[in-house]
Design goal:
By secondary structure, this protein is mostly beta strands. The protein has one domain: Neuraminidase (6 Propeller). The protein is built from 3 helices and 28 strands. The model has no long low-confidence stretch (mean pLDDT 93).
């Protein structure tokens, strides 16, 4: 009996070793195929970008006729940025749980205060276009509003779904004066159980009439209103684990009632047979059932903030779009970590089969290190303000 028990223990021990070895081999293969380019996103660089900026005016690459500087620093986790009615800059710092006000005097940052703290992953910020001191902000689980400089406490106007992989909630006022909120999926790719996920909703300013506007948007993190058409444009991050070059990340023109395809379609209505194993009598990825992307961008570049050049900027840039590529983490060779310019006409269209896309700011990714990761873009009359959640700074770009 003793020998039998010893034999069983040997079998169990051997099986455990085999199982752990198999798991280790799988983990190494998975890392090599999907994640070996992750390090620039998570590793601290050897030099802080504000120190580099002090010693080198060309610390980032820009087109001729533009300069860039560090406008504000010591702002880790900086994400969404908006100006309030006093022309102070508000910044959501998601992982810090705060909203920071950068006080501005004569075009310079002269101080900063965390005006709201202990928040639940704050992200989206929006100022009421008719009341420039009324701030709306989105946490992971709710939307609130508050009158700035009043000493009042924020008032919740809407509940949002909490949990899951995508926890940023973005806000924008549309050209119709209503408030829009983007809610990402709970997963990489799945059939959602919560009917509020992977969608954009619209509501009145007090949170009433909260209803679905569009769906099939895996993670539309930032939105912008096109100055000519009044339509909302949104950046969209495609799913992971289909390799380095699939699926494309996207820019979508958001319209009421449209389905943008996720989880079974991506890009120009390409069917994701890797996820969806159902059999259809018609192609599930075709108009008018699903809407194709307006612009495809390199897979895993992680497009976030987007902004249109206003008429006050140089004529050759008018109507064009800037998009921040936050940078890949799930790719064998890193990509992104820059801001690109997309050339468009006054209606947001482009000539030819593909739009013309060129680098506008690059240089964050150097020698396998990321000095920063650009997030939001705000184009004002005096310059372009860019948040960076890795370096913890706000940049300012000016036309010379």
């Amino acid at each position: 009996m003793k020998n039998k028990n010893s034999f069983i223990r040997i079998i169990i021990s051997g099986s455990t070793v085999i199982a752990f070895t198999a798991l280790a081999i799988w983990a190494v293969i998975f890392y090599w195929k999907n994640l070996r380019g992750v390090w620039p996103a998570i590793r601290l660089p050897g030099q802080r970008i504000e120190n580099l900026a002090n010693s080198d005016s060309d610390f980032l690459n820009l087109p001729e006729g533009f300069s860039i500087s560090i406008f504000a620093k010591d702002l880790p986790g900086s994400r969404d940025v908006v100006f309030d009615g006093m022309d102070n800059l508000l910044v959501s710092r998601t992982r810090e749980g705060v909203i920071t006000m950068i006080k501005i005097k004569e075009g310079k940052a002269v101080g900063q205060d965390d005006i709201f703290s202990k928040l639940n992953n704050p992200h989206g910020l929006a100022i009421d276009p008719e009341t420039p001191f009324l701030l709306y902000f989105a946490e992971e689980d709710k939307i609130s509003r508050v009158m700035l400089y009043s000493g009042q406490s924020p008032q919740k106007i809407a509940d949002l779904p909490e949990g899951g992989g995508h926890f940023t909630r973005s806000l924008i006022f549309g050209s119709d004066g209503r408030l829009y909120v983007s809610i990402g999926s709970s997963c990489n790719v799945c059939n959602e159980e919560d009917n509020r996920r992977a969608k954009i909703f619209v509501m009145e300013k007090d949170g009433s009439d909260f209803k679905e506007f569009s769906r099939g948007l895996r993670n539309a993190v930032f939105m912008a209103v096109h100055p000519g058409t009044g339509k909302i444009w949104a950046t969209e991050m495609g799913r992971d684990l289909l390799g380095d070059n699939l699926p494309p990340d996207e820019i979508n023109i958001i319209e009421e009632g449209k389905n943008y395809g996720w989880p079974i379609c991506y890009g120009k209505n390409i069917y994701d047979a890797n996820f969806d194993k159902n059999v259809y009598i018609r192609n599930p990825c075709m108009e008018p059932f699903e809407a194709p992307s307006h612009i495809d961008m390199p897979a895993h570049s992680a497009p976030l903030g987007l902004a249109f050049f206003p008429e006050s900027w140089p004529e050759e840039y008018r109507n064009d779009l800037l998009v921040a590529y936050h940078g890949s983490w799930n790719r064998t060779e890193p990509t992104g970590y820059k801001i690109v310019r997309i050339k468009l006409d006054e209606q947001g269209s482009f000539s030819g089969e593909l739009p013309e896309i060129e680098d506008f700011i690059s240089g964050w990714l150097k020698n396998g290190e990321a000095l920063g990761r650009p997030v939001d873009i705000l184009i004002a009359s005096d310059g372009i303000y860019i948040s960076d959640d890795k370096a913890g700074v706000i940049y300012k770009v000016e036309a010379l």
